[in-house]
Amino acid sequence: MRLSLVERISDLSPDAWARLDPGRSPFMELPFLEALEHSGSVGAATGWSPLFVTAWSDEGALVGAVPAFVKAHSYGEYIFDWGWARGAQAAGIDYYPKLVVAAPFTPATGRRILLAPDAGPEVMPSLIAATVDVAKQLRLSSVHWLFVTDEERAVLEQMGFLTRLTTQYHWENAGFSDFEGFLGTMRSKRRREVRRERAQVAEAGIQVRMLTGPEMQDRHWAAADDFYRHTCGRKWNDPYLEPGFFERIRATFADRVVFCSAERDGVVLAGSLFFRRNDALYGRYWGRRDDVQVKGLHFDVCYYAPIEWAIQQGIQLYEAGAQGEHKIARGFLPSPIHSAHWIADPRLAGGVARFLQDESAHTAVVMEALEQRGPFRRGDDGPLPAGPAITVDPATPS
Hints:
The protein is an alpha+beta fold. Helices cover about 35% and strands about 25% of the residues. The radius of gyration is 22 Å and the shape is globular. The model is unreliable at about 380-385 (pLDDT under 50).
């Protein structure tokens, strides 16, 4: 086996990458990663410098890969380490640049170690070790594996990485026959509220429908791009995805796209964009026109219509994105999110280790409390416990 670094995803052939199994994740498929690169959404100018770690057989076949990026900041990651960076700065430790293994701008769990069917058992640990070697050689502060699978978390932990537990809100299909069957599992009060929210949209004369990428017309693609940029501009100023990303996705990856379009008289008033692979659906971007103020519209377009469609399509998992405790009342329950971290400086590593131990215990308690607040059973609505803080070990004598 031979390991090498690849600085451009476009330097890898589609046939070579097609040998690797991304599991449920569409965000590890070559067209998605290539669209980020082609549009300039990743690259040195954005602080996301690709540095893919690849493994090759003696015969020259790609048998494994890890999507890694040298980062000059912590934007677009969704596993928040700003407190670690502040702690490092206070201790006189350079936190940036660092190495991040992730799908850029995508808070969705999925495989980060992509393996070919003929990959031997040595490939996974070799790729993991290689990320640490790269960090040491480039004098990077740390390595961060984000939104990893349970299997990857276990291996990373065995290899000495610090593991972190955070949470999102996911919908899982419990064998529902239709949307009414899903509502039937809720308390009567929540059923009435969901029906009322959906009725408000219908009464406003708005038609909500789910479209696959090939079914989307020019106006839908234009709306998806406009809504994304408008929402980012209103909330965060700078969109992560550069112009040209959606055009590239339409040309190369439309079969993975789903769009929930809210229309009236043929005009797209609001919408949400999703990616699908196998039995999983991932909600990514939502937006609406400023002149559209319809109660319940966001919930219908982002939650109810996609859930109804997911049931019809036999989809088992729907991840609706990062954060948002309001999702709990709509049928999304707390789900564990795993990441793993290697930190070069022992002072910072010690502080992060203590923080993660406290945070994991706190997260487990909060997840249980949040699940009790779900729409499927009654629970305690008391305040949630406060989370831990991070401290950095003092410098040791040389």
